[in-house]
Design a protein that fits this description.
Layout lengths: L12 H8 L7 H7 L4 E5 L2 E4 L4 E4 L2 H4 L8 H13 L12 H13 L4 E7 L2 H18 L7 E5 L8 H6 L16 E4 L4 H4 L6 H19 L4 E6 L15 H11 L3 E5 L13 H5 L5 E4 L11 E6 H14 L12 H16 L2 H17 L7 E7 L2 E6 L14 H12 L2 E2 L1 E3 L2 E4 L7 H12 L1
Parallel strand pairs: 3-13, 5-6, 5-7, 7-8, 8-9
Antiparallel strand pairs: 1-2, 2-3, 4-10, 9-10, 11-12, 12-15, 14-15
Helix pairs in contact: 4-13, 5-13, 6-12, 9-10, 14-16
Bound molecules: pyridoxal-5'-phosphate.
Length: 450
């Protein structure tokens, strides 16, 4: 209870947080003892806690605040739309301007030959929706047995029942009775961690593709509907695939007529140094899932963008049944859609994708220069997302006995220096706003080295 936080005044925000609020992704009993960190305001790449202490938000919140914490144009876009039409929806043939404009923008800017966009409110909902679309399509094509989905170890696709089932991280399954059946698991492209002795990156990528093919053949190709993947795995540890990984995986999928779903929730809108992760890795997806940076996370919105291979059969099936029985009250919310359109406009106008590439290179070079530090096992990254894997024993690639303890300790020390990173077990991740300057990147590097 509140009085368990040694320093908190009764009725302070800290004490009331402990009393009334159950946090996501938090050890709830530990929170009773140490209390929350309360963020009060933001400006540029900085956030300030409720005692006025500044922090560089080197994770852009949750990999998401592309434009930093004080973009007035987004505030204006929201206020203008809220005054004109604060809510409308897309059920039963209704629509509105911001939703139409955003659908057109996404379909035309996404790589591949996309056909239509469907709107959701979070990355998890986008994943659930895509899963339902894939199943609906298989039924539409008269292939009711083609339903299994392949996802990877270390994948993160969200926390709703279906998305958490696709996720390949133990914490999202333990005590939740997940995953659902029908989801097959294949290895992640984590070369540094999973390579065999003497194996090159190229050989490792070939092995992953061969394992995928074995899995497909063992299960029966006609039972498998789709392969799910983040171009770069984010929450699973910023796992950057070997250069030829995606090419090899796609060749297997094409051979067995399996759809490819690219979860671009982190990678999308500039993070990897190109507008989409699919462009960075030559991925030709059938479905793309977009969220987070789409609106700089000023408001919740996400989208499923799909090609005609997916959309055509779904439209036919909706005609047969009488409706596509799926949709969210707030899907494509006009205020969120207006903010998303303005976010994308700003990313394009200011060429923030190029800034992500340039500042990302500076960040990765600076981190790579710490490779000889005794605690640094691997530095990895692409564009403006990077991670440093911390180890105690460089040869054995191991940290402390309890996984995550070293990462948490270093990340806490970094926070005490005024930089918010993110510990993912023993890797510390960096994913700052796309607007970051060279001086701000250097400040992150200096504080991390300290
Ligand atoms: N997909 C990816 C790749 C993500 O990184 C996340 C969240 O971090 C999600 C899906 C889930 O998004 P949300 O938390 O908005 O449900």
């Amino acid at each position: 209870m509140a009085d368990q936080i040694p320093t908190a005044e009764p009725n302070s925000p800290e004490a009331r947080d402990v009393r009334y609020h159950l946090h996501g992704y938090t050890n709830a009993r530990l929170n009773e003892q140490i209390g929350p960190m309360i963020i009060d305001r933001g400006e540029g790449v900085y956030v300030y806690d409720n005692e006025g202490r500044p922090y560089i938000e080197a994770m852009a919140g949750l990999w998401s605040v592309a434009l930093g914490f004080s973009e007035e144009r987004l505030v204006e876009a929201a206020a203008t739309q809220m005054r004109r039409l604060p809510f409308y929806h897309s059920f039963t043939h209704k629509s509105h301007g911001p939703m139409i404009d955003l659908a057109e923008k996404l379909v035309t800017m996404c790589p591949g030959n996309m056909s239509k966009a469907f709107f959701t409110n979070s990355g998890s909902e986008a994943n659930d929706t895509a899963m339902k679309m894939v199943w609906y399509r298989s039924n539409a094509l008269g292939k009711p047995e083609k339903k299994k989905l392949i996802a990877r170890q270390r994948a993160y696709h969200g926390v709703t029942i279906a998305a958490a089932s696709l996720t390949g991280l133990p914490a999202n399954h333990l005590s939740f009775d997940l995953p659902l059946s029908g989801i097959l698991r294949t290895g992640s492209p984590h070369y540094w961690r999973d390579m065999l002795p003497g194996e090159t990156e190229e050989q490792f990528a070939s092995r992953r593709a061969a394992e995928l093919e074995e899995l497909i053949l063992a299960e029966g190709p006609d039972t498998i509907a789709a392969f799910w993947g983040e171009p770069v795995l984010g929450a699973g540890g910023v796992v950057v695939p070997p250069a030829t990984y995606w090419e090899k995986i796609q060749a297997v999928l094409a051979k067995y007529d399996i759809l490819l779903v690219a979860d671009e929730v982190i990678c999308g809108f500039g993070r990897t140094g190109k507008m989409f992760g699919c462009e960075t890795y030559g991925i030709k997806p059938d479905i793309m899932l977009l969220s987070k940076q789409i609106s700089s996370s000023y408001l919740p919105i996400s989208a499923v963008v799909a090609n005609e291979r997916v959309v055509g059969p779904i439209m036919d099936e909706s005609a047969r049944i009488g409706t596509f029985g799926h949709g969210f009250t707030a899907g494509g919310h006009p205020v969120a859609a207006a903010v998303a359109l303005e976010t994308i406009r700003i990313i394009e106008e200011r060429d923030l994708v190029a800034n992500a590439a340039e500042q990302g290179e500076r960040l990765r070079n600076g981190l790579a220069a710490m490779a000889d530090h005794p605690l640094v096992g691997e530095v990895r990254g692409v564009g403006l997302v990077a991670a440093v894997e911390l180890v105690i024993d460089k040869q054995a690639k191991t940290a402390l006995e309890k996984p995550g303890l070293l990462g948490a300790a270093v990340n806490k020390a970094l926070q005490d220096q005024g930089v918010i990173g993110r510990a993912m077990l023993d890797a510390v991740a960096f994913c700052p706003p796309l607007i970051i300057t060279a001086a701000e990147v250097d400040a992150i590097l200096t504080k991390f080295r300290a």
